[in-house]
Amino acid sequence: MVIGLFFGSFNPLHKGHLKLADTFYNQTQMDELWWMVSPQNPHKSPLELAPFEHRLHMLRDAIQTPDYVVSDFEAHLPTPSFTIDTLTALCNHFPDHQWKILMGQDSWNALPTWKSGSDIENQFDIWVYGRPGATEWRSGKYHPLHFEPLPISSTGIRAQIQSKVPLEKIDDILPITQTYIKQHQLYQGV
Fold first, then answer.
1. d(CA 40, CA 56)
2. Which of 8, 47, 62, 104 is 20–30 Å from 18 (CA)?
3. DSSP of 119-135, one letter per residue?
């Protein structure tokens, strides 16, 4: 099987993630798209993340596309979640699968600084999408994903919630996600 991997914190999931996933799935040849929820991204503070279980549940509630799989695979690996460690474990668990990795332009540009970044670049099929306002692209082995980035970010959504914007007025997240955030009082701030 050919599997597309969409790594992220999804803190919270928003409509930009969904559009990006659909674009990745439709522009490449894959059998399934796996949403790889990161328990702890090494580049993010654990203080800004909602608990892993909540982020996983929000995705499982919202993702209903048959070929999309919400995965807790990284939760069974040591944290923080280094991409090379996850990819190595995936290759060991699923030796017959082929992997396509989705990556933002900022991550692509920083890849040489990642743990075994050159191994990731040389051993895997990487698809890169642009970020709003970003113009610099480093050269290397990747495929450009033709995607018009949306001006949506999880950081911006969390800031709106902390500023007491009613969840129903935050159009960038699905109603089912709004309900979950409200029920569990996520991202309320101090």
1. 13
2. 47
3. HHHHHSEEEEE--TT--
Ordered DSSP codes for 38-88: -S--TTS-GGGSPPHHHHHHHHHHH---TTEEEE-GGGGS-SS--HHHHHH
Sign (positive or negative) of CA dihedral 50, 51, 52, 56: negative
Angle at 134 between CA 131 and CA 136, to 5 degrees: 120
125-129 sheet: strands from edge to edge: 68-71, 32-37, 2-8, 98-104, 125-129, 143-144
Task: Name all domains of the chain by residue range, CATH numbers in brackets.
Answer: 2-150 (3.40.50.620)
Asked if residue 86 lies in contact with residue 74, where contact means CB atoms within 8 angstroms, the answer is yes
Q: Which residue has the higher pLDDT, 68 or 136?
A: 68
CB 68 within 8 A of CB 32: yes
For the entire predicted model, the pTM comes to 0.92
Question: What would the pLDDT profile of 77-103 be if each residue is shown by its tens digit?
Answer: 988 778 999 999 999 999 999 999 999
- Give me 152's structure tokens: 């949506």
